[in-house]
Amino acid sequence: MAKMNMIQALNSAMDIAMDRDPNVLVMGEDVGYFGGVFRCTDGLYKKYGSHRALDMPIAEGGIMGVAIGMGVNGLRPIVEIQFSDYIYPAIDQIVSELARLRHRSGGEYFAPVVIRAPCGGGIRGGQTHSQSPEGIFTHACGLKTVMPSNPYEAKGLLIAAIEDDDPVIFFEPKRIYNGPFDGDHNKAASPWSAHPLGDVPQEHYKIEIGKANVLEPGSAVTVITYGNMVHVAQAAIKNSGIDAELIDLRTLIPLDIDTIKASVQKTGRCVVVHEATLTSGFGAEILSQVQEECFWHLKAPIERVTGWDTPYPHAFEWEYFPSQERITQAMLRTLESN
Amino acid sequence: MREREEDLMTDKQPVDTAIQYQSKLFVPQASSRPETTPDFSHIEIPSPIASHRPDVLSEAIDIQDLAYGLVRVLGDDNLVAGPWAPDLSPDKLLQGLKHMMHVRAFDNRMFKMQRQGKLSFYMKCTGEEAVAVAQGMALKPSDMLFPSYRQQGLLFVRDHSIVDMMCQCLSNAKDNIKGRQMPIFYSSKKHNFFSLSGNLATQYSQAVGWGMASAYKGEDNVAVSWVGDGTTAAADVYHALVFGSTYKAPVILNVVNNQWAISTPQSFASTGSTFAARSIGLSIPGIRVDGNDFLAVYAVTQWAAERARKGGGPTFIELYTYRTEGHSTSDNPDAYRGKNEASFWPLGDPIERLKEHLIAIEQWSEEQHQALQSELTDEITKDWKEALSHGSLDNGPHWPVTSMFEDVFKEMPPHLVKQSKQIGV
Q1: Among B323, B260, B336, which residue's Cα sits nearest to residue A34?
Q2: Does A206 reside within a domain?
Q3: Consecutive 10-residue runs of chain B (425 residues): their mean pLDDT?
Q4: Which residues from A are below 8 Å from B23, CB to CB?
Q5: Among A196, A338, B164, B171, which residue's CB has the most CB atoms within a 10 Å radius?
Q6: Has this prediction a pTM greater than 0.80?
Q7: A129 noted as active-site residue
Q8: Does A217 map to a domain?
Q9: Are B193 and B154 in contact (CB under 8 A)?
């Protein structure tokens, strides 16, 4: 065990994967010599050389296209998209090609590419450095979609993603790279070293993709979330004293509906929280499935707490970022409704 | 902890470690890294009299030498020479010098304010001031600018209020884009300066479209756009060149080759050739110019603008320069390039070179220069105080918080009306 922040945990996962398998390489803008703008690939260039920690031209579509080609030729590329906001030039390669390759070739071809993309706000990045575009990729058929909320799981999930033969898009909430963040930006930042999930084994381990985690047991209401919002929701539950069950999805596709179902059938109430915008966000999919699976158990309308349907504003970051208060109010509304 | 142990699925069998590859892949190198000494001795610097100034309607193929050469006007003796020498009065040159010094004073102040926590972010253009200032001065005010993020000099040339630029950086109540974007992502319709995007190269083909519309309307205005050396890899750059050439759009497409894309050297995009050469196959003249030579930048831009206005179509200009400082306030260049690499750059500093020229022709003096510098620094200090009086990012005042729901659409649809009433709840 070692104390690791999320950056170090992700770095450790890539290091282990590269050490075990020469087919694994990391690539993207500034990931080589510099070690990435968030330092996630720090040291890999030194250890594995410029051929395996590959700096690349600024062209996400090009990076993704060559990653697919490498994957088809036996390699396991880990692509870093510097900010998930920069992923759009690669959409054609991801959605039309990477996601569908196995299916369209009748199972003959596949590309085991991992796309790592820092996402989410809370760093004053404005509209081009704060987005949470996961819903676009869950809507493309054929991409496993992961978003961890802590170092321990980030490492286990990333190793699982690298060893997976399907393409995985791996969103990293950058606000919690260095420490958990409960949404209160006036409070002093707390580091991962002070959090139990900052204890990370140094060796190889995997966390199964497609399994949610019940983080807090409770019986009054189920709160379903992932990424950044896990910590905000956890603090809202703690500070409000509501007997809520908190589920960290960790993986969006495939969705662990069994864990969700078991919880909502028990509580009869459900609040879905994500930072991405509301309309057509992944929360809409969760709501549909909860309705399909738990309709007769529901005692209140399902609530959503999300980012607003606007671009991420620079000046109003904290009015945009879903707050503990909004989550608490949503939980209370479901509890009051009968 | 119990759940976590269950999660552990440690694969006891390591994968076949017998595989060993002997890589034959070519990977480009940097001009320097922290452990090496910068060396730019391979850069050929021709004399100003070495290049020719062709007719503005020349075919790209006939003037391709300009894509591999380096247009210069200011020689090592600080005097003007060669066919590209523009007809610029000493007053105009002094105006250019003043703009460049003003930009630098502004950048220095804003960078410091970011370090003091007053701004969330900042980007300087130190060492590249001649690009935006000389190009801006060579254009007409009705020409439309589609900048990247390091052409703040254009706004100085177009007489944009400095206080208002600061207010944008502060996202305060006087910010004309209502606190919506990060610092430096200016937009000014009044100055024909397009809204900056954080997504690279997107503006390049948009500039071509603007130029196509100008031609379609029978107008005379030119669209001008900029990308960096790294961004030339983006597909949008190719789109702009293909569409621009196909329709002979009145557009000037610039590549500011400042040698570095954050930590990535230009060698990862230049493919061992010049950037200017890239357009020749698409029948667009490519011209490589000494980007730190104010007069040469002015002259080449003037040539391209005339070509565009006469129906000759696009020109692709590579401005050969050097990014003296970090990419932004978010990176430390000492971590990825040789220490003081800027001091090895063989084409000097644009402000110093124009100053030395004006001194050489007896239109300027060291004393006048120092006096102007202090005057501009004082002005910036005064402007900063005024900008702060309109609010700051941390403490406001800002635009009303519900303003974030405006301008998503022209008319606010019902779902946003509903959300705007929920905010602050």
Answers
A1: B336
A2: no
A3: 49 59 95 94 95 97 98 97 98 98 98 97 98 98 98 98 98 97 97 94 96 97 98 97 98 98 95 97 98 98 98 98 97 94 96 98 98 98 98 96 96 96 79
A4: 49, 51
A5: B171
A6: yes
A7: yes
A8: yes
A9: yes
